[in-house]
């Protein structure tokens, strides 16, 4: 058989298999509600009266005080108590994109989704309040990671790290500008004054990011590496920020910036990566919408790359940068916390399928199976269904969803007794016995999606296996959009 035909058949079989196992349909609306609720468990700062995750209390109320600034609020990124600005900004950008594209599918959950964005952007406004300085992190990671402590008890070093003209960080500043710009679209009609504040700040932050170019890990490697080091370079964040500012402001200058800087800033473009470090696939998909609508011929090269990206996701395709799948059908990339790739790449598939639909377009994929909007939706839904329980372990990777889900997630607040249950302080090393315990976590962090199974679909459900058992905000942010869509179309 000709290899092309063989590949076509394998893709067709995979697509049929994926379409056929939708028999036990999931409660996407329940999962959507939970995926948003999770963000309340990650809140830092003073909690509001309508806080729904009640086992959490106020924490880190002096963040920034030693430097004379207010840096309270924001999100803990994962199972520790550090506020890492780079992934937090990416989380806010993706939550905003979820609402921009799928907010109309959220029903009664829209208000909670808006509050989840605002919790991040209120904080990002504080970190960018002073000209020429951006606070990019609060909390010394080595101090934090050497303790197993509740955020409410924290006595670790809450150092505030910043960038400025002499110590630039176009990566974190660019992502912050992208987040503020994306959120300004979310709030444009819902809260015009807040939206204008976000957009004006985004413009200033982008100017700063572009004028003072460099990677924040050059000056802050001791604090941000190896956790959220900028491995991939800052160039993609400059393009990404410009793309969001173009969408948010509709000013010509951002489109011109993209066209003029395209060649330099796309150096090292890896078409099928998308996450807190690498924005390339996201840039390509975001800008393609306008190309597909016939409004931006000068951005055509981004659509060509987006098409290549989409083809690389099709199972059984022979693209040189083909994304791998586990035997059970989960997208898999090496490096830990795999589920971040699953949700972000699936989000792009779904977003692109909508852009293709509106333009009545499909991606030919070099004569192999064409990527039609409906195939892309089927594949994205298959990834979501895997997360929710259609997998070889027969378990949901979302805490609190379904009958079987991870019980021992790598998360300090969830695994230690709550302040209500145990009002006395639990010191740095006193938490170790809870970390090592075989007991399930006492506080169920509803909606948290963990790093997920390894490449053979196995999952240990054990706190020390953090790559598998730790949730992060940037796993959930794109999932919110996916669940919104499938809750309205299933
Ligand atoms: C995946 O995890 C299972 C169970 O923990 C283990 O037996 C297996 O060796 C792991 N596979 C790989 C490739 O690491």
UniProtKB/TrEMBL annotation:
Q: Which one GO biological process term can you cite for this protein?
A: cellulose catabolic process
Q: Which SUPFAM superfamilies match?
A: Six-hairpin glycosidases
Source organism superkingdom: Eukaryota
Q: Does the keyword Transport apply?
A: no
Q: Which residues form a coiled coil?
A: none
Which positions fall inside the Glycoside hydrolase family domain?
A: 28-483
Q: What residue stretch is flagged as signal peptide?
A: 1-24
Q: Which InterPro entries match?
A: 6-hairpin_glycosidase_sf, 6hp_glycosidase-like_sf, Glyco_hydro_9, Glyco_hydro_9_Asp/Glu_AS, Glyco_hydro_9_His_AS
Q: Which reaction does it catalyse?
A: Endohydrolysis of (1->4)-beta-D-glucosidic linkages in cellulose, lichenin and cereal beta-D-glucans
Q: One MF term from GO for this chain?
A: cellulase activity
State which Enzyme Commission number(s) the record gives: 3.2.1.4
Q: Which residues form the active site?
A: 410, 461, 470
Keyword entries, A-Z:
Carbohydrate metabolism, Cellulose degradation, Glycosidase, Hydrolase, Polysaccharide degradation, Signal
Entry's family note: Belongs to the glycosyl hydrolase 9 (cellulase E) family.
Q: What is the protein's given name?
A: Endoglucanase
Q: Cite the source lineage.
A: Eukaryota, Viridiplantae, Streptophyta, Embryophyta, Tracheophyta
């Amino acid at each position: 058989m000709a290899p092309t035909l063989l590949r076509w058949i394998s893709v067709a079989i995979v697509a049929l298999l994926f379409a056929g196992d939708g028999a036990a349909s999931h409660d996407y609306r329940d999962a959507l509600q939970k995926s948003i609720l999770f963000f309340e468990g990650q809140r830092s700062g003073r909690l509001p009266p309508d806080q729904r995750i009640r086992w959490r209390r106020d924490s880190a109320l002096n963040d920034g005080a030693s430097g004379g600034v207010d840096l309270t609020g924001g999100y803990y990124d994962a199972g520790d108590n550090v506020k890492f600005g780079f992934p937090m900004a990416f989380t806010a950008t993706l939550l905003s994109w979820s609402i921009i594209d799928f907010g109309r599918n959220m029903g009664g959950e829209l208000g909670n989704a808006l509050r989840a964005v605002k919790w991040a952007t209120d904080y990002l406004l504080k970190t960018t309040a002073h000209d020429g300085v951006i606070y990019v992190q609060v909390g010394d990671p080595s101090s934090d990671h050497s303790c197993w402590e509740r955020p409410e008890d924290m006595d670790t070093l809450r150092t505030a790290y910043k960038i400025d003209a002499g110590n630039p960080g176009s990566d974190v500043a660019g992502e912050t500008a992208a987040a503020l710009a994306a959120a300004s679209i979310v709030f444009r009609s819902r809260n015009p004054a807040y939206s204008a504040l976000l957009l004006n700040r985004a413009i200033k932050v982008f100017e700063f990011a572009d004028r003072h170019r460099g990677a924040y890990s050059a000056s802050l490697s001791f604090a941000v590496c190896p956790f959220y080091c900028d491995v991939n370079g800052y160039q993609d964040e400059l393009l990404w920020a410009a793309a969001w500012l173009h969408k948010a402001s509709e000013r010509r200058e951002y489109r011109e910036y993209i066209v003029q800087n395209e060649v330099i800033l796309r150096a090292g473009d890896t078409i099928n990566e998308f996450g807190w470090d690498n924005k390339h696939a996201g840039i390509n998909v975001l800008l393609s919408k306008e190309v597909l609508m016939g409004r931006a011929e000068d951005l055509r090269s981004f659509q060509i790359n987006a098409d290549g990206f989409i083809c690389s996701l099709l199972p059984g395709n022979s693209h040189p940068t083909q994304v791998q799948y586990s035997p059970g059908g989960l997208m898999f990339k090496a490096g830990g916390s795999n589920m971040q790739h699953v949700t972000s790449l699936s989000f792009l598939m779904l977003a692109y399928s909508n852009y293709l639909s509106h333009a009545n377009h499909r991606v030919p994929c070099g004569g192999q199976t064409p990527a039609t909007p409906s195939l892309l939706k089927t594949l994205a839904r298959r990834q979501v269904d895997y997360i929710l329980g259609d997998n070889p372990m027969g378990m949901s990777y979302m805490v609190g969803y379904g009958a079987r889900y991870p019980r021992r997630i790598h998360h300090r607040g969830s695994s230690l007794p709550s302040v209500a249950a145990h009002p006395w302080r639990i010191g740095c090393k006193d938490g170790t016995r809870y970390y090592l315990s075989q007991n399930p976590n006492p506080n169920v962090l509803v909606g948290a999606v963990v790093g997920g199974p390894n490449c053979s679909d196995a999952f240990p459900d054990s706190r020390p296996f953090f790559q598998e058992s730790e949730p992060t905000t940037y796993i959930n942010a794109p999932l919110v959009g996916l669940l919104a869509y499938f809750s309205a179309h299933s």
